[in-house]
Design a protein that fits this description.
By secondary structure, this protein is an alpha+beta fold. Helix content is 30%, strand content 24%. A three-stranded antiparallel β-sheet has the order 1-2-3, with helices on one face. The radius of gyration is 12 Å and the shape is globular. 9% of the residues are buried.
Amino acid sequence: MKVVKRVATASDREASQLPPLYDTIDPGALDALVDSAAAGPSSLALRFEYEGYLITVDGSESVSVERRTE
């Protein structure tokens, strides 16, 4: 939900107005990957596009959202 909430805020929309995240990436797999990275030292950084934004999730569960300009 963190990704959807951040994109909703960035795009000035309600989270319910966005398409399901699972249409882009498997949220369960994303959670499992971040959880496994959080268990120890990691330089994990996963990037994917969602609703015109570049999303970066790292091993510390930090989520950054950048508008795609291309």
